[in-house]
Amino acid sequence: MWKLPAVLVFAVAALAACDQRRIDQLEEGLATEADVKRQFGEPASVSTEPDGSRTLEYPRQPEGQTNYFITIGSDGKMSALRQVLKESNFAKVGPGMDKAEVRRLLGRPARMQAYALKQQESWDWRYASGGEAKVFSVTFDAQGRVLNSNSTPDPKGTEGR
Protein backbone atom coordinates (compact mmCIF):
# COMPACT_ATOMS: atom_id res chain seq x y z
CA MET A 1 0.00 0.00 0.00
CA TRP A 2 1.29 3.47 -0.87
CA LYS A 3 2.22 5.54 2.21
CA LEU A 4 1.78 9.28 2.51
CA PRO A 5 4.90 11.27 3.39
CA ALA A 6 4.96 12.13 7.11
CA VAL A 7 4.77 15.87 6.41
CA LEU A 8 1.61 15.42 4.33
CA VAL A 9 0.02 13.17 6.97
CA PHE A 10 0.74 15.81 9.62
CA ALA A 11 -0.66 18.60 7.40
CA VAL A 12 -3.92 16.71 6.75
CA ALA A 13 -4.35 15.91 10.45
CA ALA A 14 -3.61 19.52 11.40
CA LEU A 15 -6.18 20.80 8.89
CA ALA A 16 -8.86 18.52 10.37
CA ALA A 17 -8.05 19.70 13.90
CA CYS A 18 -8.09 23.34 12.78
CA ASP A 19 -11.45 22.86 11.10
CA GLN A 20 -12.97 21.50 14.32
CA ARG A 21 -11.67 24.49 16.29
CA ARG A 22 -13.13 26.82 13.65
CA ILE A 23 -16.49 25.04 13.74
CA ASP A 24 -16.56 25.23 17.54
CA GLN A 25 -16.33 29.05 17.29
CA LEU A 26 -19.52 29.30 15.20
CA GLU A 27 -23.02 29.02 16.63
CA GLU A 28 -26.05 28.57 14.39
CA GLY A 29 -28.42 31.52 14.61
CA LEU A 30 -25.75 33.81 16.08
CA ALA A 31 -22.67 33.68 13.85
CA THR A 32 -22.64 36.10 10.91
CA GLU A 33 -21.08 35.74 7.47
CA ALA A 34 -18.19 37.89 8.73
CA ASP A 35 -17.71 35.46 11.65
CA VAL A 36 -17.63 32.51 9.22
CA LYS A 37 -15.09 34.24 6.98
CA ARG A 38 -12.99 35.14 10.00
CA GLN A 39 -12.80 31.44 10.91
CA PHE A 40 -12.63 29.83 7.44
CA GLY A 41 -11.44 32.62 5.11
CA GLU A 42 -12.92 33.39 1.73
CA PRO A 43 -15.12 30.59 0.34
CA ALA A 44 -14.23 28.71 -2.85
CA SER A 45 -17.69 29.59 -4.18
CA VAL A 46 -20.91 31.28 -3.08
CA SER A 47 -24.38 30.24 -4.26
CA THR A 48 -27.51 32.32 -3.78
CA GLU A 49 -30.52 30.17 -2.97
CA PRO A 50 -34.15 30.86 -4.03
CA ASP A 51 -35.08 31.89 -0.46
CA GLY A 52 -32.37 34.58 -0.41
CA SER A 53 -29.93 32.60 1.71
CA ARG A 54 -26.34 32.11 0.58
CA THR A 55 -24.28 28.92 0.65
CA LEU A 56 -20.54 29.31 1.18
CA GLU A 57 -18.40 26.38 0.01
CA TYR A 58 -15.22 25.37 1.83
CA PRO A 59 -13.72 22.28 0.15
CA ARG A 60 -10.90 20.34 1.78
CA GLN A 61 -10.11 18.37 -1.38
CA PRO A 62 -7.81 17.03 -2.85
CA GLU A 63 -6.00 15.76 0.28
CA GLY A 64 -8.77 16.22 2.85
CA GLN A 65 -11.91 14.11 3.17
CA THR A 66 -14.49 16.84 3.74
CA ASN A 67 -16.30 19.61 1.90
CA TYR A 68 -18.19 22.10 4.09
CA PHE A 69 -21.26 24.05 2.99
CA ILE A 70 -22.15 26.90 5.35
CA THR A 71 -25.54 28.53 4.87
CA ILE A 72 -26.06 32.20 5.72
CA GLY A 73 -29.78 32.95 6.04
CA SER A 74 -31.48 36.00 4.57
CA ASP A 75 -31.16 37.50 8.09
CA GLY A 76 -27.35 37.41 7.74
CA LYS A 77 -26.91 34.68 10.38
CA MET A 78 -25.43 31.22 9.91
CA SER A 79 -28.31 28.75 9.70
CA ALA A 80 -26.41 25.56 8.85
CA LEU A 81 -22.91 24.09 8.65
CA ARG A 82 -22.80 20.77 6.80
CA GLN A 83 -20.08 18.34 5.81
CA VAL A 84 -21.50 17.13 2.48
CA LEU A 85 -19.23 14.20 1.59
CA LYS A 86 -21.31 11.41 3.05
CA GLU A 87 -23.19 8.33 1.91
CA SER A 88 -26.64 9.95 2.11
CA ASN A 89 -25.59 12.66 -0.39
CA PHE A 90 -23.83 10.17 -2.67
CA ALA A 91 -27.10 8.21 -2.84
CA LYS A 92 -28.79 11.28 -4.36
CA VAL A 93 -26.47 11.21 -7.40
CA GLY A 94 -28.24 9.42 -10.22
CA PRO A 95 -28.15 8.90 -13.97
CA GLY A 96 -29.14 11.97 -15.95
CA MET A 97 -28.11 14.58 -13.36
CA ASP A 98 -25.95 17.33 -14.86
CA LYS A 99 -22.54 18.47 -13.63
CA ALA A 100 -23.93 21.61 -11.98
CA GLU A 101 -26.41 19.57 -9.91
CA VAL A 102 -23.68 17.21 -8.74
CA ARG A 103 -21.35 20.12 -7.96
CA ARG A 104 -24.05 21.85 -5.86
CA LEU A 105 -24.67 18.61 -3.96
CA LEU A 106 -21.05 17.57 -3.25
CA GLY A 107 -18.87 20.62 -3.83
CA ARG A 108 -15.57 20.81 -5.64
CA PRO A 109 -14.09 17.39 -6.46
CA ALA A 110 -10.59 16.26 -5.57
CA ARG A 111 -9.91 15.23 -9.16
CA MET A 112 -11.46 15.75 -12.59
CA GLN A 113 -10.27 13.55 -15.46
CA ALA A 114 -11.38 13.79 -19.11
CA TYR A 115 -11.37 10.73 -21.39
CA ALA A 116 -11.44 12.21 -24.90
CA LEU A 117 -11.80 8.95 -26.83
CA LYS A 118 -14.74 7.82 -24.72
CA GLN A 119 -16.17 11.36 -24.60
CA GLN A 120 -16.56 11.00 -20.86
CA GLU A 121 -15.34 12.78 -17.76
CA SER A 122 -14.83 11.40 -14.25
CA TRP A 123 -14.93 13.37 -10.98
CA ASP A 124 -13.64 11.98 -7.67
CA TRP A 125 -14.18 13.04 -4.06
CA ARG A 126 -12.13 11.63 -1.18
CA TYR A 127 -14.12 10.87 2.01
CA ALA A 128 -14.17 8.76 5.15
CA SER A 129 -16.82 6.19 6.00
CA GLY A 130 -16.71 4.17 9.20
CA GLY A 131 -13.03 4.90 9.67
CA GLU A 132 -12.20 3.76 6.13
CA ALA A 133 -10.80 6.10 3.47
CA LYS A 134 -12.81 5.95 0.23
CA VAL A 135 -13.23 7.67 -3.11
CA PHE A 136 -16.65 8.47 -4.59
CA SER A 137 -16.50 8.70 -8.40
CA VAL A 138 -19.02 10.04 -10.89
CA THR A 139 -18.74 9.48 -14.65
CA PHE A 140 -20.37 12.00 -17.02
CA ASP A 141 -21.22 11.54 -20.70
CA ALA A 142 -20.41 13.95 -23.55
CA GLN A 143 -23.47 16.08 -22.61
CA GLY A 144 -22.30 16.41 -19.00
CA ARG A 145 -24.92 14.02 -17.62
CA VAL A 146 -24.25 11.33 -15.01
CA LEU A 147 -23.74 7.88 -16.50
CA ASN A 148 -22.86 6.13 -13.24
CA SER A 149 -21.25 6.49 -9.83
CA ASN A 150 -19.49 4.26 -7.34
CA SER A 151 -17.38 4.17 -4.18
CA THR A 152 -14.05 2.39 -3.89
CA PRO A 153 -11.31 2.17 -1.25
CA ASP A 154 -8.96 5.17 -1.39
CA PRO A 155 -5.63 3.97 -2.79
CA LYS A 156 -3.90 6.53 -0.54
CA GLY A 157 -5.15 4.63 2.50
CA THR A 158 -6.22 5.87 5.90
CA GLU A 159 -2.96 7.02 7.48
CA GLY A 160 -3.33 10.35 9.25
CA ARG A 161 -7.07 10.56 8.84
Main sheet attributes: strand count, strand direction, barrel closure = 4 strands, antiparallel
What is the number of independent domains? 2
Question: What is the tally of helical segments?
Answer: 4
What percentage of amino acids are in beta strands?
25-35%
Radius of gyration: 17 Å
Q: Which structural category fits the helices and strands?
A: alpha+beta
Q: Give me the strand/helix succession.
A: HHEEEEHHEEEE
> Roughly how much helix do the residues carry, as a percent range?
10-25%
Strand order of the largest sheet: 1-2-3-4
> Overall 3D geometry?
globular
- On the 0 to 100 scale, the average pLDDT is 88
- Based on the coordinates given, report the CATH architecture of the largest domain: 2-Layer Sandwich
Give the total of beta strands.
Answer: 8
Which CATH C-level class of the largest domain is it? Alpha Beta
Any key phrases for this structure?
single chain, 161 residues, alpha+beta, Beta-lactamase Inhibitory Protein, Chain:B, domain 1, 2 domains, four-stranded antiparallel sheet, 8 strands, 34% strand, globular, disordered N terminus
